[in-house]
Fold:
Amino acid sequence: MTNDANSLIVAFATLDGVVIPKAHFGEAHQYEIYRITADDATRLESVTNPKAREGHGAGSHHHHEHGDGKGAGIGRLLAEHRVQVMVSRAFGQNIVRMRERFLPVKVDTEEVAAAIDLLQRHWGQVQSRWLQGQARKHLVLHSVP
Structure:
């Protein structure tokens, strides 16, 4: 599978393949990976997050310690699946390092389907931000304008 100029490979942080938790991206139980274009979304696979800890990712945001290897491990996992865009309701301190390789997108929607719609409604902005390369900043998309 190769990436083309009109699509992006997107990983959604989820609890169960449907719900996007309020917890940081790295605390998600799994990642739903899609190939998305401006008008289509194809689910490619579901990947378990080996870095998720017991009791985390249950939808609550709370203080916890971050291991130095956690962000790197998740980065390698996402790279293995050719992910370009990370979607979550929250990101932690690793966002600065992660945006060098990925486009982090913060959304305010609770379900993957709604987040896909949000990405597609702002497709030009998503693609433009991705193309900025290592200097890119994260993107925040709101469901209500």
Summary: The helical segments are 68-80, 95-98, 112-121, 123-130. The chain has one domain: 8-55+66-139. The first strand starts at residue 8 and ends at 14.
